[in-house]
Design a protein that fits this description.
This protein has 144 residues and is of the alpha/beta class. Helix content is 28%, strand content 31%. Strands 1-2-3-4-5 form a 5-stranded mixed sheet, with helices on both faces.
Length: 144
């Protein structure tokens, strides 16, 4: 891991999301990454477009990374994906970003399954678990 990944990991591990739903955790992680990047003086975009060439048919597939951080040269821009489940498409986007010269980080949380190790992508594995929004229980008569 690089210094930027270590610094981001320290920031994210301090985030307390235990009482939040899955959707709220993702929003909280995204907001914290944006705050952290802005405090470093960098420009930030969420849902930033990336294009991936697909070797099978030669067409390009458009995707979006969750966070794109623009840093001043000679520092590489940072592409970040945030997932609560294993998503191979996220890794593909990040590998493409790394091949284009960006620093790629996968923020993985939600279960105990290890996200994996990749030469071109740093992984921050957070210990939070997924939690659905509370659904009120239907009373016995509500079925009628």
């Amino acid at each position: 891991m690089t210094a930027v990944t270590d610094e981001l990991a320290t920031t994210l591990f301090a985030l307390d999301t235990r009482a939040l739903t899955t959707q709220a955790v993702t929003k909280s992680i995204t907001a914290e990454i944006v705050r952290w990047a802005l405090s470093c003086g960098w420009q930030v975009r969420t849902e930033a477009r990336v294009e991936l060439p697909l070797p099978a048919d030669g067409r390009r597939r458009v995707g979006f990374v969750d966070v794109l951080i623009r840093r001043a040269p000679p520092e590489a821009d940072v592409a970040i994906e945030i997932d609560s489940t294993d998503k191979p498409w996220s890794v593909a986007k990040l590998k493409h970003a790394a091949a284009a010269g960006m620093h790629a980080i996968w923020v993985r949380w939600g279960d105990e399954a290890w996200a994996g190790v990749y030469d071109e992508v740093d992984v921050i594995q957070l210990p939070q678990t997924r939690r659905s929004a509370h659904q009120p229980e239907a009373g016995q008569l509500s079925l009628w």
